[in-house]
Amino acid sequence: MSLQTVEQRRRQRLAVLMYEINTPLTVLKGDLELARQGTRPLTPDLLGKQLRQIERVNRLAEVISDYSKRMDDYLPTRCQVCALPAIISEVVSVVSSLPESQGRTIPVRCPDALPSVWADPNQVYEVLENLLKNAVLYTPQGSIAVEVEVKHNFVWTAVVDTGLGMAAADLQEVFKLHRRSEAAQRCNPGGKGLGLTIVKDLVELQGGAVAVESQLGEGSRFSFSLPVA
């Protein structure tokens, strides 16, 4: 995927979020107009409703800002010949040491003779770190592992967990900006729904693809591919 395509997709995603901001603003405007006309008193319930709409606008504005900044930080792509095991080892070490990991060991299952990939090492690090942190967050109990295999001139890396999992309906939305499964919202209500969108954009920018398999209550498998160098 070209840089131009990524930029076009980013503009489209931001346009969707800007449209979503209009909904709470329209509600606020309507309530305040009725209050100004004296046809709807500013009761505590109404003020509470307006505050919730303002909070929604703030969240969406933060998502827009964060998404733009994080994508700017990782563009343009600087692909080179990369040894994937070294990157995986470093990311696993960092994530395993986080307090949220609770001392959990994250095994890596990788072929001995793994070919190098053509990728941007910084972007690969970001992708894998994001997937592993999600796995830690949504696997309060259970196991997490990294599995690597070669398929048709691509190296596929998967983060596999036995955590909360997702319903089938959520799988269609999981990589969309600001879309979060019900399980994710319950487990991490402060999340913005940014990470997996950035994962998808960065992987596709390097000529790869993303995939997800999941069952509610049984766990998830998030994987991404990178071309063999």
Describe the protein's topology.
Layout: H1 3-37, H2 44-73, E1 80-82, H3 84-96, E2 108-109, E3 117-119, H4 121-137, E4 144-151, E5 154-161, H5 168-171, H6 182-187, H7 195-205, E6 210-215, E7 219-227
Parallel strand pairs: 2-4
Antiparallel strand pairs: 1-3, 4-5, 5-7, 6-7
Keywords for this entry:
229 residues; alpha+beta; two-stranded antiparallel ribbon; Heat Shock Protein 90; Helix Hairpins
What this model shows, in words?
There is one protein chain. The chain has helices at residues 3-37, 44-73, 84-96, 121-137, 168-171, 182-187, 195-205, and strands at residues 80-82, 108-109, 117-119, 144-151, 154-161, 210-215, 219-227. The chain is of the alpha+beta class. The protein folds into two domains: 3-73, Helix Hairpins (Orthogonal Bundle), CATH 1.10.287; 80-227, Heat Shock Protein 90 (2-Layer Sandwich). A hairpin with a 3-residue loop joins strand 6 and strand 7 (219-227). The longest helix is centred in the N-terminal third of the chain and has 35 residues, at 3-37. The two termini are 17 Å apart. The mean pLDDT is 83.
